[in-house]
Automatic annotation (TrEMBL):
<dbReference type="GO" id="GO:0004252">
    <property type="term" value="F:serine-type endopeptidase activity"/>
</dbReference>
<keyword id="KW-0378">Hydrolase</keyword>
<dbReference type="InterPro" id="IPR001940">
    <property type="entry name" value="Peptidase_S1C"/>
</dbReference>
<dbReference type="GO" id="GO:0006508">
    <property type="term" value="P:proteolysis"/>
</dbReference>
<dbReference type="InterPro" id="IPR051201">
    <property type="entry name" value="Chloro_Bact_Ser_Proteases"/>
</dbReference>
<comment type="similarity">
    <text>Belongs to the peptidase S1C family.</text>
</comment>
<dbReference type="InterPro" id="IPR009003">
    <property type="entry name" value="Peptidase_S1_PA"/>
</dbReference>
<dbReference type="Pfam" id="PF13365">
    <property type="entry name" value="Trypsin_2"/>
</dbReference>
<keyword id="KW-0645">Protease</keyword>
<protein>
    <submittedName>
        <fullName>Protease Do-like 5, chloroplastic</fullName>
    </submittedName>
</protein>
<dbReference type="InterPro" id="IPR043504">
    <property type="entry name" value="Peptidase_S1_PA_chymotrypsin"/>
</dbReference>
Length: 316
């Protein structure tokens, strides 16, 4: 290649005038040297190629490296699969229903099952707080039920017990805190054993660490999305217009129906409640900028909602 380049850069053909023998000799020597260099260069490339092809040790090391990389990928996949399998039974699917008429039966469960005219007004997610049937979700997921004065609003909660049995119950509102977009529901769990989530902490989170969202986007139950903590200490609006401070920003996909579901860390510990996403204007498509209420805020709020029905700030 070098030789060809050199040849292409030679000046125009030599003039036909006679040159001295010493000049011819010098040119011939130069040409021979150039050719020899070309031959040596080509031989070097050929030898190097043959050595590479005939070196079984190098090939073996490459194969081992690829195998180790595949094994590491397999281990990472297995870890995420186990993480989902262990955590998803603690996540619930919530449907907001509007009945066509006020039921005559005192059994609301029968009404929810048999009323074909019930209109699904929205879906969301939540997670099991304790074995007594308390469910934590976003206030905006159940705000119609919380403000209902017609008696037609219902909340249907789909759960899985510790043995893997799927069932559903009507959810009753225990307490709400619109300032932090948090609500607590209660379902009758007689005869079932629930698996509550494992609570983590949000105070020591670091940007860049892995996180996972489990929920029911667009009604697709038990959906897992993965990402990282993209930012900390964000400020997002609450349903009552106040600011929720300290929110977690993540690129783990959060869409309509994910609201109220858990954001978990690599150990399966809940670090936040998925609550909001920015969408591209006019498209409704998530921009990848998503937010969760930090679990430390939830831990301070939920016990008061369970006991008193109102947040701590309303009582003191």
């Amino acid at each position: 290649m070098v030789v060809m380049a050199s040849l292409h850069t030679l000046p125009s053909p030599l003039p036909t005038t006679t040159t001295s023998s010493s000049s011819e000799s010098s040119d011939n020597k130069s040409l021979v040297i150039t050719r020899r260099r070309a031959i040596v260069s080509g031989s070097t490339v050929a030898v190097a190629s043959l050595l590479q092809l005939s070196n079984p040790i190098s090939s073996l090391y490459s194969a081992i490296a690829l195998q180790q990389q595949d094994e590491e990928l397999d281990e990472e996949e297995d870890r995420i699969v186990r993480l989902f399998q262990e955590t998803s039974p603690s996540v619930v699917f919530i449907k907001d229903l509007e009945l066509a008429k006020i039921p005559k039966s005192s059994s609301q469960e029968v009404t929810l099952a048999e009323d074909e005219d019930a209109k699904v007004e929205g879906t969301g997610s939540g997670f099991i707080w304790d074995k007594f049937g308390h469910i934590v979700t976003n206030y905006h997921v159940v705000d119609k039920l919380a403000t209902d004065q017609s008696g037609l609003q219902r909340c249907k909660v789909f759960l899985v017990d510790a043995r893997g049995t799927s069932f559903y119950k009507e959810g009753k509102i225990v307490g709400i805190d619109p300032a932090y977009d948090i609500a607590v529901l209660k379902v009758d769990v007689e005869g079932y054993e629930l698996k509550p989530v494992v609570l983590g902490t949000s105070r020591d989170l670091r940007v860049g660490q892995s996180c996972f969202a489990i929920g029911n986007p667009f009604g697709y139950e038990n959906t897992l999305t993965t990402g990282v903590v993209s930012g900390l200490g964000r400020e997002i609006p609450s349903p009552n217009g106040r600011a929720i401070r300290g929110a977690i920003q993540t690129d783990a996909a959060i869409n309509a129906g994910n609201s109220g579901g858990p954001l978990i860390d690599s150990y399966g510990h809940v670090i936040g409640v998925n609550t909001a996403t920015f969408t591209r204007k006019g498209t409704g498509v998530s921009s990848g900028v998503n937010f969760a209420i930090p679990i430390d805020t939830v831990v301070r709020t939920v016990p008061y909602l369970i006991v008193y029905g109102t947040p701590y700030s309303d009582r003191f």
